[in-house]
């Protein structure tokens, strides 16, 4: 009798570290990010120029989650404005449209992600379970809310079945606004790395983990000036990065020498078995295609056309 092995079910976890500068990461001891980079890759990326969009939360996460630049999704600032999410929905919604029998999770604290503040909610629709710890209801803002996000997300990943999860931490951004990118900011990055490690550990403890194929992504929406603050056109503010790996497995592809934030959505969707259609008009591409090689680690970012 011929025995066949059932392919592992694909899952994906995206972890957002708000306002984290890529150029500072090599200076820090970040065991979780380093493990992801070693298993897969960590590559610096560049956000659009200020003439296209502010280097701010709403434009950055709209770009990361939709796979298109601000000229298409329409979010260029944190202020109220119309969007084009009906034409360019975020990847959680794309997944549920394609695979309505699966579930998605978003565990966040930023008001623009989970409420109508500014141009939000950016995560409108397509989220089976939205856990929203509103930063506006805690005196410490995201610094007080992030531990709750971490604990809730850890529990959900361990005990529930979500094909695609997005977990967002904001205390790095808040710390930089208060104190610049000095010691406390670096400690905040280390803390978010630790929380991310706990999320990955929760995934590995799932009773069905041996039958699952998990892609993990860590990214950010913008950087910060040395003194703190963002929204402008400096290279410190326009920094971002993509880190990506499959848990306990080879990544299965070698990323090109140049990647962009808009590549995140199509790459995750392809891992989850979603066919990225040409008429979606995405600016990004799935990275699981033949490409030139790049050493994993702290590579040079790709500049967008015109940058």
TrEMBL record:
Name of the molecule in the record: Type I phosphodiesterase / nucleotide pyrophosphatase
Molecular function, one GO term: hydrolase activity
InterPro entries according to UniProt: Alkaline_phosphatase_core_sf, Phosphodiest/P_Trfase
UniProt superkingdom: Bacteria
SUPFAM superfamilies the UniProt entry points to: Alkaline phosphatase-like (SSF53649)
Entry's transmembrane regions: none
Organism: Microlunatus soli
